[in-house]
Structure formats: C-alpha cells, structure tokens
Amino acid sequence: MVLSDRDIKQEIARGRIKIEPFDAALVQPASVDLRLGKKFRVFSRTSDTFIDVRVNSPDLTQLIETDELQPFILRPQEFALASILEKISVPSDIAGRLDGKSSLGRVGLLVHATAGWVDPGYQGHLTIELSNAVNLPIFLYYGMRIAQISFIRLTSPAENRYGSRKLKSKYQGETEPTPSKYYQYFEAKRKSK
Fold this sequence. Notes:
By secondary structure, the chain is mostly beta strands.
C-alpha cells in the first residue's frame, strides 16, 4: 500500500521515515519532493573503448561540485550521476520508489535509468542517474526539486534489511554520487570458489 501524505507525515513525526533536512512544503499527496544536491559524477574521457562491468574502474568518472549559483549543465545525450540533497532513512517495513518530476520529464530530463527502488533499511543521500534526452543543454540548480519519493508499506518487515551483513549492501550510507560497484559481484564470486 502506498502511503498518503497524512501517513508520510505521521511516519516522519514518529522518526521511522527520516528526511533530513525536512521541509513540510515538499510533501505531495502521495510522495515527497526531493531536491538536487551539489555533487555530480561525470564520465571522464579515457583511452578505454569499452566499460567492463567486472572491473573496478575508479577513473571512469570524476567528482565535481557546484555551488548555490552555478548551474550544472547536462549536455544533449549526456549522462551523469548526482546526489539528492536530503538524507533518507527508511525502516524495515517500508520501501521507497523514486521517480522524476513530470515537469522536468517534459523538457527531456530523466532522473533514473534503473535505480528507482529504495530498499527497506536504506540510509543515505540517494544517487540519481541524470540523462538529457533532448538536443539542447539543460541547466540544473542546487536545491531545485528534481525527484519525488513515494513510500510503500510491506506486508511484514524485511527479514534482511538493506545494510545487513548478509546482503553486503554496496550503497548504504552514501554521502555523494557513488559510481557503480557492480564489479563486487564478480569479486565475491571469485572468492567463493
């Protein structure tokens, strides 16, 4: 069941859902608007001709930071990672669903390619995947409403919440846009042999 604005505010008041800093004006009928942070990861020009998902490639992206006045410019057909301004925490019986803002989608901005799910137990500043689908640059500003999160109550608390030792969650506690850690699946497989 998706939580209504009333239920979201109750869960925040109880401290079960945490959104820091919290601004009640961002609460929508069944979601909460989230704002864009200052940190971005852009893909670097390298001599590599492919991306091998089995390998840690720390030089694939570089971290950049904007300020309150300078926009981040997402060029046509460009992809970048960014952080949400708010730190999010969800309990073990609630999951989140991240979606873009309709008004931004109408100018060609996509805010997630596949990472729209927020597992029960997640804590941190969500990383979003920005794509510009149009042929003009899009200017993005610190603090602008960039996405929205809705909350879904599970039928029972998760047996293994995100961040548990058993799951070895890769993105728990994010403070800035985090590049892919998919290679860790292959490392774990090699170690288990």
